[in-house]
């Protein structure tokens, strides 16, 4: 049975705790036997009782405390129970944590990792179902990372390995985005998906940790006509759409999946779009002023004079409802990706 994203992340936390005694976990209800709202920290407090700390309900205070621990040489990992509550850390993240290196002329490091479960599709309602990482994507000094449930043989960067390497190697603050529906997805290796070719590229090989970018395409298919780009759980929906389009309509795409959302390196997306001329960005956050808009703008700037046909797939600019039927209408679905790809593929024909 394949390892899931949840079990991989859990193993990554245990690995980081075992490798470096400076690693501490902090968060609400993360102790055993509960092990956190989504069980990512399960077993950690039993194995490392002195370095797993259950905290009061005060995200702003926890962010400040974690920042102080990092400045003193520790490597804290802070779990935000629901990503919606990341808004309570906004002042600490934007005005302090992300700026200390500049304020103190590179004399300090701040190796803080903040984990935040984002996203809907579980009927939790407007304040527990949001995808808010776009609020932080333009903050200098703050790195945003979102794992995907794919690996490539030559780069074993499954989500837990990626998380552990960030915890152990980063010198700067990282916001680590986990989608709630992603937790139970299996981690796909190439042998699990014989219909697909999975390849991985490293962002900035000179630095550590390394953030892979994955390219997925139909095995043995003709040249792709459309570039798809997505991250996190939406990578799985994009994969489903890509297969459906290939086998039912002979409309072939290639899918580019970055794991580092900010600072964003657009080179791999540009390389693909330069060949296809058509692009669909896919995200669960709200459509307006989102990640997809930035990616499309960067691609257009990198290909001056090119005639590009683009489309964005994202959530409607509405609060996420609790009722399943309404939630489905607000959040992007596979059918939305299919429609967007068909539109850009047929444009001008």
Describe the structure.
Helices cover 32% and strands 21% of the residues. The protein has helices at residues 5-19, 44-47, 59-71, 90-97, 100-103, 159-169, 234-249, 267-276, 291-302, 324-330, 334-346, and strands spanning 23-27, 52-54, 75-79, 113-118, 143-145, 174-179, 196-203, 211-218, 226-229, 253-258, 260-262, 278-286, 309-315. Strands 2-1-3-4-6-5-11 form a seven-stranded mixed β-sheet, with helices on both faces.
Q: H/E order of the elements? A: HEHEHEHHEEHEEEEHEEHEHEHH
Gap between N and C termini: 45 Å
Q: How many discrete domains?
A: 2
Q: How much strand? A: 15-25%
CATH class of the largest domain: Alpha Beta
The CATH architecture term of the largest domain is 3-Layer(aba) Sandwich
Instruction: Name the CATH superfamily classification of the largest domain.
Output: Thiamin diphosphate (ThDP)-binding fold, Pyr/PP domains
SS elements, strand count: 13
Residue share in helix: 25-40%
What number is the mean pLDDT? 94
Largest β sheet strand count, sense and barrel closure: 7 strands, mixed
Number of helices: 11
Structural class call reads: alpha/beta
**Overall 3D geometry?**
globular
Unreliable stretches covering 5 or more consecutive residues: none
User: What strand line-up does the widest sheet have?
Assistant: 2-1-3-4-6-5-11
What is the third-level CATH name, the topology of the largest domain? Rossmann fold
CA-atom Rg in angstroms: 20 Å
């Amino acid at each position: 049975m394949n390892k899931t994203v949840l079990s991989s992340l859990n193993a990554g936390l245990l690995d980081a705790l075992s490798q470096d005694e400076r690693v501490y976990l902090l968060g609400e209800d993360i102790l055993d036997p509960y092990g956190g709202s989504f069980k990512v920290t399960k077993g950690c407090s039993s194995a490392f009782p002195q370095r797993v700390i259950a905290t009061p309900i005060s995200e702003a205070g926890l962010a400040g405390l974690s920042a102080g621990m990092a400045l003193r040489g520790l490597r804290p990992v802070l779990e935000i129970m629901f990503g919606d509550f990341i808004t309570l850390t906004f002042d600490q993240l934007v005005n302090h944590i992300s700026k200390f290196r500049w304020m103190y002329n590179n004399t300090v490091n701040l190796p803080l990792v903040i984990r935040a479960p984002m996203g809907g599709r579980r009927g939790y309602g407007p304040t527990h179902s949001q995808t808010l990482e776009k609020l932080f994507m333009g903050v200098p000094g703050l790195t945003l990372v979102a794992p995907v449930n794919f690996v490539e043989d030559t780069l074993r960067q499954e989500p837990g390995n990626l998380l552990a390497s960030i915890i152990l190697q980063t010198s700067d603050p990282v916001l680590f985005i986990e989608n709630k529906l992603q937790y139970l997805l299996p981690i796909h290796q190439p042998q699990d998906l014989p219909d697909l070719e999975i390849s991985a590229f490293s962002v900035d090989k000179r630095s550590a940790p390394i953030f892979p970018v994955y390219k997925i395409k139909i095995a043995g298919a003709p040249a792709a006509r459309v570039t798809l780009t997505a991250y996190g759980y939406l990578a799985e929906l994009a994969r489903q759409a890509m297969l459906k389009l290939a086998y039912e309509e002979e409309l072939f795409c290639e899918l580019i999946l970055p794991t580092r959302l900010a600072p964003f390196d657009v080179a791999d997306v540009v390389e693909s779009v330069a060949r296809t001329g058509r692009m669909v960005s896919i995200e669960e956050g709200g459509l307006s002023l989102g990640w997809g808009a930035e990616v499309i703008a960067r691609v257009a700037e990198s290909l001056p004079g090119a005639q590009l046909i683009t489309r964005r797939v994202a959530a409607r600019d509405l609060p996420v409802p609790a009722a399943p039927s309404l939630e489905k209408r607000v959040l992007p679905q596979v059918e939305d990706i299919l429609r967007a790809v068909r539109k850009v593929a047929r444009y001008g024909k």
